[in-house]
Amino acid sequence: MSSPVQSKAPPYRVMPGFGLSLGFTIFYLALIVLIPLSAVFLKTFTMTWEAFWGAVTSDRVMASYRLSFGASLIAASINVVFGGIVAWVLVRYNFPGKRIVDALVDLPFALPTAVAGITLTALYSSNGWIGRYLEVIGLKVAFTPLGVVIALTFIGLPFVVRTVQPVLEDAERELEEAAASLGASSWQTFSKVVFPSVMPALLTGFALAFARATGEYGSVIFIAGNMPMVSEITPLFIITKLEQYDYAGATAIAVVMLLVSFALLLTINLLQAWTRKRTGKK
Amino acid sequence: MSAVLNTLPGAAKPPAPPAAAPARRGELPAVSNVLEPAWVRRVLIGVALAFLTLFLFVPLVAVFAEAFKKGWQAYVAAVIDPDAVSAIKLTLIAAFISVPLNLVFGVCAAWSIAKFEFRGKSILLTLIDLPFSVSPVISGLIYVLMFGAQGWFGPWLQAHDIKILFAVPGIVLATVFITFPFVARELIPLMQAQGSEEEEAALVLGASGWSTFWRVTLPNIKWGLLYGVILCNARAMGEFGAVSVVSGHIRGETNTMPLQVEILYNEYNFAAAFAVASLLALLALVTLAIKSFIEWRLHETDPVEAEARNLEH
Q1: Taking CB atoms and an 8 Å limit, are B28 and A92 in contact across chains?
Q2: Which residues contact B160 (CB under 8 A, 6 or more apart)?
Q3: Is the pTM here over 0.95, yes or no?
Q4: CB 3.0–4.6 Å: which of A128, A214, B248, B252 could bond A123 by disulfide?
Q5: Nearest to A89 among B45, B130, B289 (CB)
Protein backbone atom coordinates (compact mmCIF):
# COMPACT_ATOMS: atom_id res chain seq x y z
CA MET A 1 0.00 0.00 0.00
CA SER A 2 2.37 2.71 1.17
CA SER A 3 5.54 3.47 -0.74
CA PRO A 4 8.90 2.71 0.87
CA VAL A 5 9.67 6.45 0.99
CA GLN A 6 6.64 7.09 3.21
CA SER A 7 7.41 4.29 5.57
CA LYS A 8 10.96 5.56 6.02
CA ALA A 9 9.77 9.03 7.03
CA PRO A 10 7.69 8.47 10.15
CA PRO A 11 4.56 10.65 10.24
CA TYR A 12 5.30 12.15 13.62
CA ARG A 13 7.93 14.45 12.21
CA VAL A 14 5.14 16.57 10.71
CA MET A 15 3.27 17.07 13.98
CA PRO A 16 4.21 20.07 16.08
CA GLY A 17 4.31 20.45 19.81
CA PHE A 18 6.24 17.36 20.86
CA GLY A 19 8.66 19.22 23.11
CA LEU A 20 6.00 21.42 24.65
CA SER A 21 3.43 18.71 25.35
CA LEU A 22 5.86 16.08 26.60
CA GLY A 23 7.80 18.67 28.57
CA PHE A 24 4.71 19.93 30.33
CA THR A 25 3.44 16.38 30.91
CA ILE A 26 6.66 15.32 32.62
CA PHE A 27 6.96 18.58 34.58
CA TYR A 28 3.39 18.35 35.90
CA LEU A 29 3.74 14.62 36.61
CA ALA A 30 6.89 15.24 38.60
CA LEU A 31 5.43 18.18 40.48
CA ILE A 32 2.11 16.63 41.45
CA VAL A 33 2.86 12.92 41.65
CA LEU A 34 6.49 11.85 41.60
CA ILE A 35 8.14 14.34 43.96
CA PRO A 36 5.40 14.10 46.62
CA LEU A 37 5.35 10.28 46.39
CA SER A 38 9.11 10.13 46.71
CA ALA A 39 8.72 12.02 50.00
CA VAL A 40 7.17 8.88 51.49
CA PHE A 41 10.20 6.80 50.66
CA LEU A 42 12.74 9.47 51.62
CA LYS A 43 11.02 9.96 54.97
CA THR A 44 11.40 6.28 55.83
CA PHE A 45 15.12 6.46 55.10
CA THR A 46 15.43 8.73 58.12
CA MET A 47 14.30 5.80 60.28
CA THR A 48 16.55 3.03 61.46
CA TRP A 49 15.73 -0.43 60.16
CA GLU A 50 14.69 -1.60 63.62
CA ALA A 51 12.34 1.36 64.05
CA PHE A 52 10.87 0.77 60.59
CA TRP A 53 10.40 -2.94 61.15
CA GLY A 54 8.90 -2.33 64.57
CA ALA A 55 6.45 0.19 63.15
CA VAL A 56 5.23 -2.05 60.33
CA THR A 57 4.98 -5.29 62.31
CA SER A 58 3.44 -4.23 65.62
CA ASP A 59 0.52 -6.37 66.75
CA ARG A 60 -2.03 -3.68 66.03
CA VAL A 61 -0.70 -3.10 62.50
CA MET A 62 -0.59 -6.82 61.78
CA ALA A 63 -4.22 -7.08 62.84
CA SER A 64 -5.07 -4.20 60.50
CA TYR A 65 -3.26 -5.90 57.58
CA ARG A 66 -5.20 -9.08 58.23
CA LEU A 67 -8.47 -7.18 58.21
CA SER A 68 -7.66 -4.96 55.22
CA PHE A 69 -6.30 -7.69 53.00
CA GLY A 70 -8.66 -10.41 54.23
CA ALA A 71 -11.79 -8.31 53.79
CA SER A 72 -10.54 -7.06 50.40
CA LEU A 73 -9.97 -10.64 49.30
CA ILE A 74 -13.46 -11.72 50.35
CA ALA A 75 -15.08 -8.63 48.81
CA ALA A 76 -13.23 -9.06 45.51
CA SER A 77 -14.25 -12.73 45.42
CA ILE A 78 -17.90 -11.84 46.00
CA ASN A 79 -17.61 -9.32 43.18
CA VAL A 80 -16.06 -11.83 40.79
CA VAL A 81 -19.02 -14.17 41.25
CA PHE A 82 -21.85 -11.63 41.25
CA GLY A 83 -20.14 -9.05 39.04
CA GLY A 84 -19.52 -11.81 36.53
CA ILE A 85 -23.20 -12.76 36.59
CA VAL A 86 -24.23 -9.09 36.27
CA ALA A 87 -21.92 -8.60 33.27
CA TRP A 88 -23.25 -11.78 31.66
CA VAL A 89 -26.86 -10.78 32.18
CA LEU A 90 -26.27 -7.24 30.87
CA VAL A 91 -24.56 -8.49 27.71
CA ARG A 92 -26.58 -11.59 26.88
CA TYR A 93 -30.15 -11.00 27.99
CA ASN A 94 -32.81 -8.38 27.55
CA PHE A 95 -35.08 -7.26 30.34
CA PRO A 96 -37.03 -4.11 31.13
CA GLY A 97 -34.95 -1.28 32.60
CA LYS A 98 -31.71 -2.80 31.41
CA ARG A 99 -30.18 0.50 30.30
CA ILE A 100 -30.82 2.14 33.65
CA VAL A 101 -29.42 -0.87 35.49
CA ASP A 102 -26.37 -0.74 33.22
CA ALA A 103 -25.81 2.95 33.95
CA LEU A 104 -26.27 2.49 37.71
CA VAL A 105 -23.56 -0.16 37.88
CA ASP A 106 -21.10 2.75 37.91
CA LEU A 107 -22.74 4.26 41.00
CA PRO A 108 -19.91 3.20 43.35
CA PHE A 109 -17.48 5.10 41.10
CA ALA A 110 -19.60 8.24 41.14
CA LEU A 111 -20.97 8.24 44.67
CA PRO A 112 -18.59 9.93 47.13
CA THR A 113 -17.18 7.33 49.50
CA ALA A 114 -18.32 9.18 52.62
CA VAL A 115 -21.91 9.08 51.36
CA ALA A 116 -21.62 5.37 50.67
CA GLY A 117 -20.13 4.89 54.12
CA ILE A 118 -22.86 6.58 56.14
CA THR A 119 -25.60 5.06 53.99
CA LEU A 120 -24.36 1.50 54.35
CA THR A 121 -23.95 2.06 58.08
CA ALA A 122 -27.52 3.32 58.36
CA LEU A 123 -28.80 0.33 56.37
CA TYR A 124 -26.91 -2.34 58.30
CA SER A 125 -27.07 -0.94 61.83
CA SER A 126 -29.40 -2.78 64.18
CA ASN A 127 -32.37 -0.50 63.45
CA GLY A 128 -31.60 -0.08 59.73
CA TRP A 129 -33.63 -1.36 56.79
CA ILE A 130 -31.45 -4.42 56.33
CA GLY A 131 -29.72 -4.66 59.69
CA ARG A 132 -32.93 -5.21 61.66
CA TYR A 133 -33.69 -8.40 59.71
CA LEU A 134 -30.12 -9.66 59.98
CA GLU A 135 -30.24 -9.06 63.72
CA VAL A 136 -33.20 -11.43 64.00
CA ILE A 137 -31.02 -14.26 62.69
CA GLY A 138 -28.21 -13.15 65.00
CA LEU A 139 -26.01 -11.49 62.40
CA LYS A 140 -24.36 -8.20 63.29
CA VAL A 141 -22.91 -6.38 60.30
CA ALA A 142 -22.36 -2.73 61.23
CA PHE A 143 -19.32 -2.09 63.44
CA THR A 144 -17.89 -5.55 62.79
CA PRO A 145 -15.42 -6.89 60.19
CA LEU A 146 -18.46 -8.09 58.21
CA GLY A 147 -19.39 -4.44 57.69
CA VAL A 148 -15.94 -3.83 56.19
CA VAL A 149 -16.60 -6.63 53.69
CA ILE A 150 -19.97 -5.11 52.76
CA ALA A 151 -18.45 -1.66 52.14
CA LEU A 152 -15.57 -3.08 50.09
CA THR A 153 -17.98 -5.17 48.02
CA PHE A 154 -19.96 -2.04 47.19
CA ILE A 155 -16.78 -0.17 46.20
CA GLY A 156 -15.38 -2.97 44.03
CA LEU A 157 -18.51 -3.98 42.11
CA PRO A 158 -18.04 -1.84 38.95
CA PHE A 159 -14.45 -2.97 38.44
CA VAL A 160 -15.40 -6.56 37.72
CA VAL A 161 -18.53 -5.74 35.70
CA ARG A 162 -16.81 -3.13 33.54
CA THR A 163 -13.80 -5.34 32.87
CA VAL A 164 -15.78 -8.44 31.94
CA GLN A 165 -18.55 -6.70 29.97
CA PRO A 166 -16.53 -5.64 26.86
CA VAL A 167 -14.87 -9.04 26.66
CA LEU A 168 -18.24 -10.78 26.67
CA GLU A 169 -19.56 -8.32 24.09
CA ASP A 170 -16.69 -9.19 21.77
CA ALA A 171 -16.81 -12.93 22.42
CA GLU A 172 -17.42 -14.90 19.28
CA ARG A 173 -20.74 -16.56 19.74
CA GLU A 174 -20.07 -18.77 16.73
CA LEU A 175 -17.71 -20.77 18.91
CA GLU A 176 -20.47 -21.44 21.43
CA GLU A 177 -22.85 -22.38 18.65
CA ALA A 178 -20.24 -24.68 17.18
CA ALA A 179 -19.72 -26.33 20.56
CA ALA A 180 -23.46 -26.74 21.02
CA SER A 181 -23.99 -28.12 17.54
CA LEU A 182 -21.20 -30.61 18.12
CA GLY A 183 -23.17 -31.95 21.04
CA ALA A 184 -21.80 -30.06 24.05
CA SER A 185 -24.24 -29.45 26.86
CA SER A 186 -24.81 -25.86 27.86
CA TRP A 187 -22.69 -26.42 30.98
CA GLN A 188 -19.87 -27.85 28.85
CA THR A 189 -20.15 -24.93 26.44
CA PHE A 190 -19.89 -22.55 29.33
CA SER A 191 -17.04 -24.22 31.14
CA LYS A 192 -14.96 -25.11 28.08
CA VAL A 193 -15.66 -22.21 25.70
CA VAL A 194 -17.06 -19.16 27.49
CA PHE A 195 -15.27 -19.35 30.81
CA PRO A 196 -11.72 -19.69 29.43
CA SER A 197 -12.25 -16.62 27.23
CA VAL A 198 -13.49 -14.38 30.08
CA MET A 199 -11.16 -15.79 32.72
CA PRO A 200 -8.36 -13.23 32.18
CA ALA A 201 -10.92 -10.41 32.38
CA LEU A 202 -12.38 -11.88 35.57
CA LEU A 203 -8.91 -12.05 37.10
CA THR A 204 -8.16 -8.47 36.03
CA GLY A 205 -11.43 -7.32 37.56
CA PHE A 206 -10.61 -9.21 40.73
CA ALA A 207 -7.19 -7.56 40.95
CA LEU A 208 -8.64 -4.09 40.29
CA ALA A 209 -11.36 -4.54 42.91
CA PHE A 210 -8.83 -5.94 45.38
CA ALA A 211 -6.38 -3.08 44.79
CA ARG A 212 -9.07 -0.48 45.26
CA ALA A 213 -10.38 -2.20 48.39
CA THR A 214 -7.02 -2.38 50.16
CA GLY A 215 -6.62 1.40 50.04
CA GLU A 216 -10.25 2.30 50.59
CA TYR A 217 -10.97 4.62 53.51
CA GLY A 218 -14.12 6.73 53.27
CA SER A 219 -16.74 4.05 52.81
CA VAL A 220 -15.23 1.77 55.43
CA ILE A 221 -14.55 3.91 58.49
CA PHE A 222 -18.20 4.60 59.24
CA ILE A 223 -19.36 0.99 59.11
CA ALA A 224 -16.23 -0.59 60.59
CA GLY A 225 -16.52 0.66 64.16
CA ASN A 226 -12.72 1.06 64.14
CA MET A 227 -11.89 -1.01 67.19
CA PRO A 228 -8.16 -1.65 67.48
CA MET A 229 -7.21 -5.28 66.77
CA VAL A 230 -10.75 -6.06 65.58
CA SER A 231 -12.13 -3.71 62.97
CA GLU A 232 -9.37 -1.19 62.27
CA ILE A 233 -8.26 -1.04 58.62
CA THR A 234 -4.69 -0.13 57.65
CA PRO A 235 -5.48 3.26 56.04
CA LEU A 236 -7.25 4.29 59.26
CA PHE A 237 -4.18 3.26 61.22
CA ILE A 238 -2.11 5.69 59.12
CA ILE A 239 -4.53 8.46 60.08
CA THR A 240 -4.36 7.48 63.74
CA LYS A 241 -0.56 7.68 63.62
CA LEU A 242 -0.75 11.09 61.93
CA GLU A 243 -3.10 12.38 64.60
CA GLN A 244 -0.55 11.33 67.20
CA TYR A 245 2.09 13.29 65.23
CA ASP A 246 3.95 10.02 64.64
CA TYR A 247 4.84 10.98 61.06
CA ALA A 248 7.58 8.36 60.76
CA GLY A 249 5.28 5.58 61.92
CA ALA A 250 2.53 6.67 59.53
CA THR A 251 5.01 6.86 56.67
CA ALA A 252 6.44 3.41 57.38
CA ILE A 253 3.00 1.82 57.07
CA ALA A 254 2.33 3.94 53.98
CA VAL A 255 5.47 2.52 52.37
CA VAL A 256 4.27 -1.02 52.97
CA MET A 257 0.90 -0.17 51.43
CA LEU A 258 2.51 1.59 48.48
CA LEU A 259 4.73 -1.41 47.76
CA VAL A 260 1.67 -3.66 47.82
CA SER A 261 -0.14 -1.22 45.48
CA PHE A 262 2.77 -1.18 43.05
CA ALA A 263 2.95 -4.98 43.04
CA LEU A 264 -0.80 -5.07 42.35
CA LEU A 265 -0.43 -2.47 39.59
CA LEU A 266 2.22 -4.61 37.94
CA THR A 267 0.00 -7.69 38.24
CA ILE A 268 -2.92 -5.79 36.75
CA ASN A 269 -0.83 -4.59 33.80
CA LEU A 270 0.32 -8.14 33.09
CA LEU A 271 -3.24 -9.45 33.40
CA GLN A 272 -4.51 -6.78 31.01
CA ALA A 273 -1.82 -7.66 28.49
CA TRP A 274 -2.93 -11.28 28.81
CA THR A 275 -6.58 -10.32 28.32
CA ARG A 276 -5.71 -8.40 25.15
CA LYS A 277 -3.74 -11.38 23.87
CA ARG A 278 -6.63 -13.74 24.59
CA THR A 279 -9.21 -11.54 22.94
CA GLY A 280 -6.92 -10.80 20.01
CA LYS A 281 -7.00 -7.01 20.48
CA LYS A 282 -4.00 -4.87 19.80
CA MET B 1 -0.11 1.23 16.53
CA SER B 2 -0.03 0.70 12.81
CA ALA B 3 -3.01 -1.60 13.00
CA VAL B 4 -4.92 1.12 14.78
CA LEU B 5 -4.02 3.67 12.13
CA ASN B 6 -5.60 1.46 9.49
CA THR B 7 -8.97 1.79 11.15
CA LEU B 8 -9.18 5.55 10.73
CA PRO B 9 -12.42 7.00 9.48
CA GLY B 10 -12.38 8.03 5.85
CA ALA B 11 -12.31 6.62 2.38
CA ALA B 12 -9.49 4.19 3.06
CA LYS B 13 -11.45 2.48 5.79
CA PRO B 14 -12.33 -1.06 4.83
CA PRO B 15 -15.98 -1.87 5.38
CA ALA B 16 -16.15 -3.63 8.71
CA PRO B 17 -17.86 -6.99 8.62
CA PRO B 18 -21.14 -6.66 10.50
CA ALA B 19 -20.20 -9.31 13.02
CA ALA B 20 -17.13 -7.32 14.10
CA ALA B 21 -18.98 -4.06 14.62
CA PRO B 22 -19.09 -3.22 18.31
CA ALA B 23 -22.48 -4.05 19.67
CA ARG B 24 -24.31 -1.12 21.11
CA ARG B 25 -24.36 -1.50 24.84
CA GLY B 26 -27.83 -2.14 26.12
CA GLU B 27 -29.24 -2.63 22.64
CA LEU B 28 -28.10 -6.04 21.67
CA PRO B 29 -30.41 -7.76 19.27
CA ALA B 30 -32.66 -10.19 21.08
CA VAL B 31 -30.69 -13.38 21.16
CA SER B 32 -32.56 -16.06 19.30
CA ASN B 33 -29.88 -18.67 19.75
CA VAL B 34 -29.55 -18.54 23.52
CA LEU B 35 -28.07 -21.87 24.35
CA GLU B 36 -29.02 -22.17 27.97
CA PRO B 37 -32.49 -23.18 29.07
CA ALA B 38 -35.02 -20.49 29.94
CA TRP B 39 -34.98 -21.26 33.67
CA VAL B 40 -31.21 -20.68 33.80
CA ARG B 41 -31.71 -17.33 32.13
CA ARG B 42 -34.40 -16.31 34.60
CA VAL B 43 -32.36 -17.43 37.59
CA LEU B 44 -29.31 -15.50 36.39
CA ILE B 45 -31.30 -12.33 35.74
CA GLY B 46 -32.93 -12.76 39.15
CA VAL B 47 -29.61 -13.24 40.94
CA ALA B 48 -28.03 -10.25 39.17
CA LEU B 49 -30.95 -7.96 39.93
CA ALA B 50 -31.20 -9.15 43.54
CA PHE B 51 -27.49 -8.48 44.08
CA LEU B 52 -27.67 -5.04 42.47
CA THR B 53 -30.80 -4.17 44.42
CA LEU B 54 -29.16 -5.08 47.70
CA PHE B 55 -25.86 -3.34 47.00
CA LEU B 56 -26.79 -0.42 44.76
CA PHE B 57 -30.46 0.46 44.55
CA VAL B 58 -31.37 0.16 48.23
CA PRO B 59 -28.42 2.34 49.37
CA LEU B 60 -29.28 4.92 46.72
CA VAL B 61 -32.89 5.12 47.88
CA ALA B 62 -31.77 5.12 51.51
CA VAL B 63 -29.67 8.30 51.07
CA PHE B 64 -32.73 10.29 50.04
CA ALA B 65 -35.07 8.57 52.50
CA GLU B 66 -32.75 9.40 55.40
CA ALA B 67 -32.29 12.95 54.14
CA PHE B 68 -36.02 13.64 54.15
CA LYS B 69 -36.78 11.65 57.31
CA LYS B 70 -37.39 14.80 59.34
CA GLY B 71 -39.28 16.54 56.59
CA TRP B 72 -38.66 19.05 53.88
CA GLN B 73 -38.05 21.97 56.23
CA ALA B 74 -35.32 20.21 58.20
CA TYR B 75 -33.74 19.29 54.88
CA VAL B 76 -33.67 22.87 53.64
CA ALA B 77 -32.43 24.12 57.00
CA ALA B 78 -29.54 21.63 56.89
CA VAL B 79 -28.58 22.63 53.36
CA ILE B 80 -28.63 26.40 53.96
CA ASP B 81 -26.81 26.13 57.28
CA PRO B 82 -23.79 28.51 57.05
CA ASP B 83 -21.28 25.71 57.65
CA ALA B 84 -22.90 23.60 54.93
CA VAL B 85 -22.90 26.54 52.52
CA SER B 86 -19.24 27.22 53.20
CA ALA B 87 -18.50 23.51 52.64
CA ILE B 88 -20.36 23.64 49.33
CA LYS B 89 -18.37 26.71 48.31
CA LEU B 90 -15.05 25.11 49.19
CA THR B 91 -15.97 21.95 47.30
CA LEU B 92 -16.80 24.03 44.22
CA ILE B 93 -13.55 26.00 44.53
CA ALA B 94 -11.47 22.81 44.80
CA ALA B 95 -13.19 21.35 41.74
CA PHE B 96 -12.97 24.58 39.72
CA ILE B 97 -9.21 24.71 40.22
CA SER B 98 -8.28 21.05 39.98
CA VAL B 99 -10.45 20.04 37.03
CA PRO B 100 -9.04 22.66 34.58
CA LEU B 101 -5.47 21.89 35.70
CA ASN B 102 -5.93 18.18 35.03
CA LEU B 103 -7.78 18.98 31.81
CA VAL B 104 -4.77 20.88 30.43
CA PHE B 105 -2.49 18.13 31.63
CA GLY B 106 -4.69 15.44 30.10
CA VAL B 107 -4.70 17.11 26.68
CA CYS B 108 -0.91 17.62 26.78
CA ALA B 109 -0.24 14.06 27.88
CA ALA B 110 -2.60 12.61 25.27
CA TRP B 111 -1.08 14.77 22.52
CA SER B 112 2.48 13.70 23.29
CA ILE B 113 1.61 10.03 23.80
CA ALA B 114 -0.87 9.57 20.95
CA LYS B 115 0.83 11.65 18.26
CA PHE B 116 4.47 10.76 18.78
CA GLU B 117 6.68 7.73 19.27
CA PHE B 118 9.31 7.91 21.96
CA ARG B 119 11.13 5.63 24.35
CA GLY B 120 9.71 5.10 27.81
CA LYS B 121 6.14 5.67 26.68
CA SER B 122 4.73 2.68 28.55
CA ILE B 123 6.52 3.78 31.72
CA LEU B 124 4.99 7.24 31.33
CA LEU B 125 1.55 5.66 30.91
CA THR B 126 2.00 3.64 34.09
CA LEU B 127 3.18 6.71 36.02
CA ILE B 128 0.14 8.70 34.88
CA ASP B 129 -2.11 5.96 36.29
CA LEU B 130 -0.22 5.86 39.56
CA PRO B 131 -2.56 8.09 41.62
CA PHE B 132 -5.38 5.59 41.00
CA SER B 133 -3.48 2.83 42.75
CA VAL B 134 -2.46 4.90 45.76
CA SER B 135 -4.71 4.83 48.81
CA PRO B 136 -6.47 8.19 49.31
CA VAL B 137 -5.01 8.38 52.79
CA ILE B 138 -1.49 8.15 51.37
CA SER B 139 -2.39 10.80 48.77
CA GLY B 140 -3.04 13.14 51.67
CA LEU B 141 -0.04 11.96 53.67
CA ILE B 142 2.44 12.87 50.93
CA TYR B 143 1.43 16.54 51.17
CA VAL B 144 1.67 16.43 54.96
CA LEU B 145 5.23 15.17 54.55
CA MET B 146 6.03 18.02 52.17
CA PHE B 147 4.20 20.97 53.69
CA GLY B 148 3.52 19.92 57.29
CA ALA B 149 5.27 21.49 60.27
CA GLN B 150 7.87 18.68 60.22
CA GLY B 151 7.82 18.48 56.42
CA TRP B 152 10.34 19.45 53.75
CA PHE B 153 9.02 22.95 53.23
CA GLY B 154 7.34 23.29 56.64
CA PRO B 155 9.87 25.60 58.33
CA TRP B 156 10.23 27.80 55.24
CA LEU B 157 6.45 28.12 54.86
CA GLN B 158 6.09 28.97 58.54
CA ALA B 159 8.81 31.61 58.31
CA HIS B 160 7.01 33.24 55.39
CA ASP B 161 3.58 32.80 56.95
CA ILE B 162 2.20 30.76 54.06
CA LYS B 163 -0.41 28.19 54.90
CA ILE B 164 -0.78 25.20 52.60
CA LEU B 165 -1.65 22.38 54.95
CA PHE B 166 -4.93 22.68 56.86
CA ALA B 167 -5.91 25.40 54.39
CA VAL B 168 -7.44 25.69 50.93
CA PRO B 169 -4.19 25.16 48.93
CA GLY B 170 -3.62 21.78 50.58
CA ILE B 171 -7.16 20.69 49.80
CA VAL B 172 -6.73 21.74 46.18
CA LEU B 173 -3.39 19.93 45.90
CA ALA B 174 -4.81 16.70 47.31
CA THR B 175 -7.77 16.96 44.94
CA VAL B 176 -5.47 17.54 41.96
CA PHE B 177 -3.48 14.44 42.89
CA ILE B 178 -6.56 12.25 43.33
CA THR B 179 -8.12 13.30 40.02
CA PHE B 180 -4.82 13.48 38.13
CA PRO B 181 -5.30 10.63 35.60
CA PHE B 182 -8.98 11.04 34.71
CA VAL B 183 -8.84 13.22 31.57
CA ALA B 184 -5.55 11.76 30.32
CA ARG B 185 -6.88 8.21 30.61
CA GLU B 186 -9.95 9.06 28.55
CA LEU B 187 -8.08 10.96 25.85
CA ILE B 188 -5.03 8.76 25.30
CA PRO B 189 -6.79 5.68 23.88
CA LEU B 190 -9.21 7.90 21.98
CA MET B 191 -6.50 9.95 20.28
CA GLN B 192 -4.45 6.84 19.61
CA ALA B 193 -7.43 5.28 17.85
CA GLN B 194 -8.06 8.43 15.83
CA GLY B 195 -4.46 8.67 14.64
CA SER B 196 -2.93 11.83 13.17
CA GLU B 197 -4.00 11.80 9.54
CA GLU B 198 -6.53 14.62 9.87
CA GLU B 199 -4.03 16.83 11.68
CA GLU B 200 -1.37 16.04 9.11
CA ALA B 201 -3.74 17.04 6.33
CA ALA B 202 -4.43 20.37 8.04
CA LEU B 203 -0.74 21.03 8.58
CA VAL B 204 0.14 20.17 4.99
CA LEU B 205 -2.54 22.60 3.84
CA GLY B 206 -0.80 25.33 5.79
CA ALA B 207 -2.61 25.50 9.13
CA SER B 208 -0.50 26.44 12.13
CA GLY B 209 -0.02 23.97 14.96
CA TRP B 210 -2.43 25.82 17.27
CA SER B 211 -5.18 26.24 14.72
CA THR B 212 -4.82 22.57 13.80
CA PHE B 213 -5.34 21.72 17.45
CA TRP B 214 -8.33 24.05 17.91
CA ARG B 215 -10.05 23.27 14.63
CA VAL B 216 -9.21 19.63 13.97
CA THR B 217 -8.17 17.85 17.14
CA LEU B 218 -10.48 19.51 19.66
CA PRO B 219 -13.71 18.89 17.70
CA ASN B 220 -12.63 15.25 17.30
CA ILE B 221 -12.03 14.68 20.98
CA LYS B 222 -14.75 16.86 22.47
CA TRP B 223 -16.96 14.02 23.72
CA GLY B 224 -14.07 12.09 25.16
CA LEU B 225 -12.88 15.28 26.81
CA LEU B 226 -16.29 15.95 28.33
CA TYR B 227 -16.45 12.35 29.53
CA GLY B 228 -13.12 12.70 31.31
CA VAL B 229 -14.05 16.08 32.79
CA ILE B 230 -17.35 14.75 34.15
CA LEU B 231 -15.68 11.83 35.91
CA CYS B 232 -12.84 14.06 37.12
CA ASN B 233 -15.32 16.55 38.54
CA ALA B 234 -17.35 13.88 40.33
CA ARG B 235 -14.26 12.56 42.03
CA ALA B 236 -12.95 16.05 42.82
CA MET B 237 -16.17 17.00 44.58
CA GLY B 238 -16.58 13.68 46.34
CA GLU B 239 -13.05 12.96 47.52
CA PHE B 240 -12.93 12.20 51.20
CA GLY B 241 -9.83 10.34 52.40
CA ALA B 242 -7.10 12.51 50.91
CA VAL B 243 -8.85 15.76 51.69
CA SER B 244 -9.59 14.58 55.21
CA VAL B 245 -5.87 14.18 55.91
CA VAL B 246 -4.86 17.66 54.70
CA SER B 247 -7.91 19.69 55.71
CA GLY B 248 -7.60 19.99 59.46
CA HIS B 249 -11.41 19.91 59.72
CA ILE B 250 -11.87 23.56 60.60
CA ARG B 251 -15.61 24.16 60.54
CA GLY B 252 -16.78 26.75 58.06
CA GLU B 253 -13.24 27.12 56.74
CA THR B 254 -11.55 23.95 55.53
CA ASN B 255 -14.46 21.55 55.36
CA THR B 256 -15.54 20.25 52.00
CA MET B 257 -18.97 18.65 51.56
CA PRO B 258 -17.84 15.07 52.25
CA LEU B 259 -16.03 16.27 55.39
CA GLN B 260 -19.12 18.17 56.48
CA VAL B 261 -21.09 14.94 56.07
CA GLU B 262 -18.63 13.18 58.33
CA ILE B 263 -18.74 15.86 61.03
CA LEU B 264 -22.53 16.00 61.08
CA TYR B 265 -22.74 12.22 61.17
CA ASN B 266 -20.28 11.96 64.05
CA GLU B 267 -22.37 14.51 65.94
CA TYR B 268 -25.36 12.18 65.51
CA ASN B 269 -27.04 14.86 63.41
CA PHE B 270 -28.07 12.17 60.94
CA ALA B 271 -30.78 14.08 59.07
CA ALA B 272 -28.42 16.97 58.33
CA ALA B 273 -25.58 14.61 57.39
CA PHE B 274 -27.82 12.81 54.92
CA ALA B 275 -29.18 16.12 53.60
CA VAL B 276 -25.68 17.20 52.57
CA ALA B 277 -24.97 13.63 51.43
CA SER B 278 -28.07 13.71 49.24
CA LEU B 279 -26.62 16.67 47.33
CA LEU B 280 -23.52 14.58 46.64
CA ALA B 281 -25.68 11.63 45.64
CA LEU B 282 -27.54 13.91 43.26
CA LEU B 283 -24.21 14.95 41.78
CA ALA B 284 -23.38 11.26 41.31
CA LEU B 285 -26.69 10.63 39.53
CA VAL B 286 -26.23 13.64 37.24
CA THR B 287 -22.69 12.44 36.49
CA LEU B 288 -23.97 8.97 35.58
CA ALA B 289 -26.72 10.46 33.40
CA ILE B 290 -24.28 12.64 31.44
CA LYS B 291 -21.85 9.74 31.21
CA SER B 292 -24.52 7.43 29.79
CA PHE B 293 -25.61 10.15 27.38
CA ILE B 294 -22.06 10.56 26.07
CA GLU B 295 -21.62 6.80 25.73
CA TRP B 296 -24.89 6.59 23.84
CA ARG B 297 -23.81 9.46 21.55
CA LEU B 298 -20.44 7.89 20.88
CA HIS B 299 -22.00 4.58 19.94
CA GLU B 300 -24.48 6.42 17.71
CA THR B 301 -22.06 8.67 15.89
CA ASP B 302 -18.53 7.43 16.03
CA PRO B 303 -17.62 3.76 16.03
CA VAL B 304 -13.93 4.67 16.27
CA GLU B 305 -14.43 6.51 19.51
CA ALA B 306 -16.70 3.79 20.82
CA GLU B 307 -14.10 1.21 19.94
CA ALA B 308 -11.44 3.25 21.74
CA ARG B 309 -13.57 3.19 24.86
CA ASN B 310 -13.99 -0.56 24.60
CA LEU B 311 -10.26 -1.01 24.20
CA GLU B 312 -9.60 1.05 27.23
CA HIS B 313 -11.88 -0.83 29.58
Answers
A1: yes
A2: none
A3: no
A4: A128
A5: B45
